[in-house]
Amino acid sequence: KKKLLLSGVEKVILATDRDTVGFRIRRQLKRELIGQVEIYELFIPPYAKDVNDLNDKELLNYHMNAELVGL
Question: What are the helix and strand counts (H, E) for the chain?
Answer without folding.
Answer: 3, 3
